[in-house]
Fold this sequence. Notes:
Protein name: cysteine desulfurase
EC number: 2.8.1.7
Shape: globular
Keywords: Pyridoxal phosphate, Transferase
Bound molecules: pyridoxal-5'-phosphate
Enzyme class: transferase
Structural class: alpha/beta
Radius of gyration: 22 Å
Catalytic activity: (sulfur carrier)-H + L-cysteine = (sulfur carrier)-SH + L-alanine
Amino acid sequence: MTFDIQKIRNCFPQLKSDGYHYLDSAATSLTPAKVIDAVDEYYRDYRANVHRALFSEAVTATDKYEEARRKAAQFIHAKSAEEIIITSGATESSNILVRTLEESGVLKEGGDPTVMTERASIVTTEMEHHSALVPLQQLAKRTKLELKYIPLKDFGLDYAVAEKLITEKTALVSVILASNVTGTINDVEKIADMAHKVGAIVVVDATAAAGHVPLDVRKLDVDALYFSGHKMMAPTGVGILWVKKPLLEKLEPSSFGGHMISSVEKDGAEWAPIPERFEAGTKNIGGMIGLGAAIDHLEEVGVENIHEYVSEIASYAMTKLESIPGVSVLAEHDAKKNAGVVSFVCDFAHPHDVAEILARDRVAVRPGHHCAEVLHAALEVKATTRASFHLYNTKEDVDALVASLEKARAIFQ
Ligand SMILES: Cc1ncc(COP(=O)(O)O)c(C=O)c1O
């Protein structure tokens, strides 16, 4: 594969200053000019609300917004754009989904009403981000379903234990596709297969995977999947929740207001068709149009190509970091199974101190638990320093990270 890295870097205005090493894409990715332009154009030229008025700006806004929904559907190989719900991000997607699954009563029957057992548990993993995990914990408390965790095995999941945990009593299986801490790309197909054999619903958090791993909901054979735009080059404040049509049609909305109704009378309301019935109020229209442009950008380069390129950088980073005395890498070492995230700990300094020294050298990393405290507990550390890579990073960025880390080691030792 030839990857014209200079051409790619030129697309990102924030990379214009020399000596800046942005290694925090797992927190939020940088934005290509094409996305900024698409959003700018909306606000300058045709700002209007969607699905309502008939003047030309409103028609253009609606067309571009719906075009972005269709692009999102194609991006994940959904059967149709009707299955795409526009949200404010992964956190809102996860909360909407959990609430609506609960309130619609489908958890009792699982995904498959022909498998009639009493559902008693939710199965998730030790790897989840808080935005997936905390709504599940709250759901478990409200419904008295028991929350069970597939444990870590090395930096991946223990599939043998998963097999035992997922039983005919399982209502829901919620699994992260790629970890935002270890980078591990999980075998979601395998988990989905286990879950569907017992009629459980399968939900996937694809936030750290989007833009790094080709997303194909049909191949994964899952029931719902969500992600945030801002981790895949779109603006902040917009995200996608995909739910397979047969399940989506059974779900009741959990948020109410304008746009999600077909009619309202004094004694009640009727809901709009899917997906609008799950989209109460005005959404982030400019953000969604930006998400469409971000998908175009990712597809021009090719997500497979991005993964191949980023894997090489991640692999180089792991080798270099492990050559520094006192540094331990806590990440999936098989770079092909890593979505570009390399977390590490240093025995000579706390992650926050490390990050501060690196910041002085314009190396941007993130210290902390990365909203994955259960995962950190399983790794037996309180916090890590995380370097995360995307298509605009280079081996020079890794060299700068390593040089700065050597400096930190000298200072603290
Ligand atoms: C794996 C994963 N899931 C979910 C989220 C939540 O995304 P947001 O904060 O955009 O809602 C994040 C953000 O860090 C993430 O990395």
